[in-house]
Amino acid sequence: MRIVGLTGGISSGKSTVSNLFKSHDIPVVDADIVARDVLKKGTGGYKRVVAAFGEDILQANGEVDRPKLGQIVFSDPGKRQLLNRLLAPFISSGILREILKLWLKGCKVIVLDIPLLFEAKMDTWTKPIIVVWVDTETQLQRLMARDGINEEDARNRTNAQMALDLKRSKADIVIDNSGTLEDLKEQFQKILVQVTRPLTWTEFWLSRQGAFSALVSIIIGVVVGKNVVGKL
């Protein structure tokens, strides 16, 4: 199995690239969806976060008010780190469950869409790593337009993440999303060819088909071995 890492920064266009993979029938494990699930009322993640941040972050129905929690952690690095520490084990196990489901289905290539791929050390699971990059000013303008926030709030959010230039230096593949959507799609088509190329032998043995082939080889070896011994 080939596990492709996909990351970027807020308003860099990572979600657009993720959706392009989905539209080409490449399964995507979305860490943001997993994170939402681990914050649902009654879950272990929910209980830890409410215990740490208090019931002021809850909506009337008892669910976590995600925008309110976001405002708290984006403006306070200490609280942001606390939230990451509280949720990291739940998010990691949730991602692993999704990978296992896709492995059992026999998927040969999957994409891990993880904003904090490097920060969470999940880059060690993935190859190749794709970073969706955009210049700082374009990123700020897109974020302000998307969320209707001022420049100070936008900078707080972008500064809360690893710098895109640093992420770019760690990437195997970089998508420059400073241009138009058509420019992005053109780059994606080239990358799709790279991502869907035949599996290496290592990737094959890590797939369900590879594991099945290995099991069959072992069984055949045992049977042949018994037959040889029986003739001695």
From TrEMBL:
Catalyzes the phosphorylation of the 3'-hydroxyl group of dephosphocoenzyme A to form coenzyme A. It comes from the Eukaryota. The keyword Amino-acid biosynthesis does not apply. Pathway: Cofactor biosynthesis; coenzyme A biosynthesis; CoA from (R)-pantothenate: step 5/5. SUPFAM superfamilies: P-loop containing nucleoside triphosphate hydrolases. Its EC number is 2.7.1.24. One of its GO terms (molecular function) is ATP binding. InterPro entries: Depp_CoAkinase (IPR001977), P-loop_NTPase (IPR027417). It comes from Salix udensis. PANTHER family: BIFUNCTIONAL COENZYME A SYNTHASE-RELATED, DEPHOSPHO-COA KINASE-RELATED. Belongs to the CoaE family. GO terms for cellular component: cytoplasm. Keywords: ATP-binding, Nucleotide-binding. One of its GO terms (biological process) is coenzyme A biosynthetic process. This is Dephospho-CoA kinase. Gene3D superfamilies: P-loop containing nucleotide triphosphate hydrolases.
